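Collaborator request, handled under Task 6.
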Amino acid sequence: MALPSQLTGTGESNDTPGGPEPTARRVAYEVALRVFEDEAYADRVFRSAATGLPARERAFAMELAYGTVRQVRLLDHAIETIGRRPLRRLDPPVRAALRLGAYQLGFMTGVPDHAAGNESVELVRSAGLQRAVGFTNAVMRRLTKELPHLLTDLPDCTASDAALRHSYPDWIAEIWWREHGPEEARELMVAQNRPAETVVRINRRIESDEMDIEPPVGLSDPAFPDALLVDRVAEEWLENGLVWPQSRGSQLAGMCVGSHASERVLDLCAAPGGKATQLSGDVVAVEIDQGRARQLEDMVRRHRATNVCVLNADARALPDELTGFDRVLLDAPCSGLGVLASRPDLRWRAKPLPDLQLELLRVAMERVRLGGTVTYSVCTMSRAETLDVIDEVGAPLEDLGSSFPQFRHPARAQCLLTQPHRDRTSGFFIARLRREP
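Structure tokens returned to the collaborator:
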């Protein structure tokens, strides 16, 4: 869907070359519209639409856009209940504007009710839908009065109730309810409805005093010496290879490989490269997608990871000579249920991938030498993509739990599991398997 040309600016008079600059609400509107009408990725739309926004406006736009995408199931329920009209019968711009307005009323403190209502109406008017302006105004007025009571009164006694109240697909709530119990399932939902902490991994290959860190900053976790909590990630840090945005859960997966400078290492699903550039040894980093492989090469170059060689190939069809590695890392494609806080639209497109994970893990076990190890990690927490996969392969496990007891898996002590509601980082499952005859 092509966006209306009227929505590229603020709606205010501006005679400067190139037209008016976007406002925070219009950036959020573009994200909400394109994610649900075009199946676009929220982060990509936001990155493009928010170009030129001042830092404060950008932060507001991100909270509004990402929050609306996360809470869309609950917002839609409220709009349909209070507005008394099915969402499917509304024009896409009206849907997007009402969702943004409802999110501001229900979840953003410090936003005056009249501002949320007026801006939603103006978004509809700017889209050229004058006939829908009155309807939008009426629904926003009803939401202002009735939304707080609706949000407060929603139950979460069952998995399906909790899925609606916390805005998740039923299948995710059911998995967490079954595997973690109701209390922890609710905590997981609440934790992943909050913005993820901004953590970077410092690149120790480059010594620099160029990082002008603004408070708040720091981490009190000695298990992650290279992790830094920041309030923002400056573009120049990324361009110069000083840091890489990477959660502590993700960094833990790279650390668990345990490779040494004298070893040959294979990273089977390497892009975007956060873990590949963590590894010591002679590393072959495999990426199937050509565009992502180019991005991986650029990342390796900027981070001066001269020990990493990028190979654009399918991990399931590697050249015969790529075998006998001392260590293999398989950070496999997965449902991503541990990173929903940082990827707001993922919950609406996620799906488990146990068959692919098992196929790739068997490839990894074939490519490692006898006595070598394969580290299997996924940024999800469902049993079908974690314990069931490694059990199917049946290789002996090395004891990661003794090295990182604070992250020991509750059902398998040799494995690790970081949990967003407990550890305040992304959810990762990590196991290290040893190849034996």
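The cover message to the collaborator said: "The chain has three domains: 5-153, 159-191, 247-434. The CA atoms of residues 277 and 305 lie 6 Å apart. Please let us know whether this matches your experimental observations."
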